[in-house]
Amino acid sequence: MDRKKVFITSQIPEIGINLLIEKGYSVEIYNKNQSINKKELIRRAKDCDAVVTLLSDKIDKEILEKFNNVKVIANYAAGYNNIDINFAREKGIIVTNTPDVLTDSTADLTLALILACARRIPEGIDLVRKKQFKGWAPKLLLGMELNNKTAGIIGMGRIGFAVAKRLKAFGCKIIYYSNRINPEAERNFNAKKVSLKNLMKNSDIISIHVPLNEKSKNLINSEMLDLLKKDSIIINTARGEVIDEDYLIKMLYENKIFYAGFDVYQNEPRINPQLLKLKNVVLLPHIGSATKEARDKMSILVAKNVIAVLSGRKALTPVN
Ligand code: GLV
Ligand code: GLV
Prior knowledge:
CATH superfamily of the largest domain: NAD(P)-binding Rossmann-like Domain
Structural class: alpha/beta
Shape: elongated
Bound molecules: glyoxylic acid
Strand order of the largest sheet: 8-7-6-9-10-11-12
Radius of gyration: 21 Å
Mean pLDDT: 97
């Protein structure tokens, strides 16, 4: 029997890999503790029927041109800006992502960042660890309450909605910027759709939940950032390229906003050294979907997408 071949660019949770093996596919995994390089990826994947990729694997034209046998690329992420999906479509390759299954995990992490910023958690941890805690004090590390604050959600998709739900429970008023009205958010959270300028001007908490594409790249530019309130918090768990990072860093140095929470960066995994010197930031290593639950479900969904396409059925979550 000619077994179908699947190449996975990294060790993902077993649960999905086992589904592929049970199906009788030959599964090869790149097991090094680093991203696979272009040459190696082409060599190992070009004759496979399916490839499972990470968001750190850049799948460009040059690579896709070599993928002559590949029918499906299943990206182990909700975002798929790492793949040239239009060229993949021209080549007849289906690309899939992993939406929904990581929504709650990413929304939880967003709240963790918001609360860490609002209550200056990193400064508190630092103080205790450096043995500088001298006792309770009336003005030690004063932060900000969430109740009655205005939260501006940029992108009211599944993750934006899940973040709005959580912030509503904390007593926030919700405004959002989006291509279209989200009736469920308006009904359930009394959320109001506003212009981006209006959102930047009026929010105490700003959280970004748009996918990265040509329209959202540098969406939060210097002109938008200049509109922020002096006491505001801005959180990015989407993609670094959505914000003008250099300008935001400059504003944080000048205390033009209160705090910023980053889970993603412009040149991941490189971090702008200026960011590391700031006190008013929370810096995380792109762990929005990093829960046991989400990563297992992502692994299953990736496998189900591969199996569907290789069995001649429609992919569950195609993006092109
Ligand atoms: C993570 O950033 C994802 O897109 O899944
Ligand atoms: C991701 O699942 C999103 O659409 O927000």
